[in-house]
Amino acid sequence: xxxxxxxxxxxxxxxxxxxxxxxxxxxxxxxxxxxxxxxxxxxxxxxxxxxxxxxxxxxxxxxxxxxxxxxxxxxxxxxxxxxxxxxxxxxxxxxxxxxxxxxxxxxxxxxxxxxxxxxxxxxxxxxxxxxxxxxxxxxxxxxxxxxxxxxxxxxxxxxxxx
Length: 162
Prior knowledge:
Layout (H helix, E strand, L loop, with lengths): L3 H35 L29 E5 L7 E5 L3 E7 L7 E3 L4 E3 L1 E5 L2 E4 L2 E2 L3 E9 L2 E9 L12
Parallel strand pairs: 1-3, 2-10
Antiparallel strand pairs: 3-7, 3-8, 4-5, 4-9, 6-7, 9-10
């Protein structure tokens, strides 16, 4: 008489081998389909030509660093005006009793204020609109208006002959 434990082991082994065989056949079939659709160049490195490049040097556009406006509340001027090419700016306030959220009236962009150490705060970067930007900074019981003019960068001179 056959051992029932032995026949269960053989059935389990057949199931496992059949499953692995089925997975192997599917993998091979998948590889054949991919090779037919992609071609035999699948393992060659892709070489691309440059689409169109002028003979002149490419124009490199460098980012303008964001200016940091430092305001000391002990020596606070009545009006602050800056001119920049940068698209944003940040502020550092010192010796102020308190500093509230900044508001750029030109684009309604707001900047939060973060305490650094004893009576020193810094702001988020505040986006600047092209042209005149009036930024309102609540400082204690009063407010400070900072005018920042964002100029548009001048286009680089053209090297192409007419």
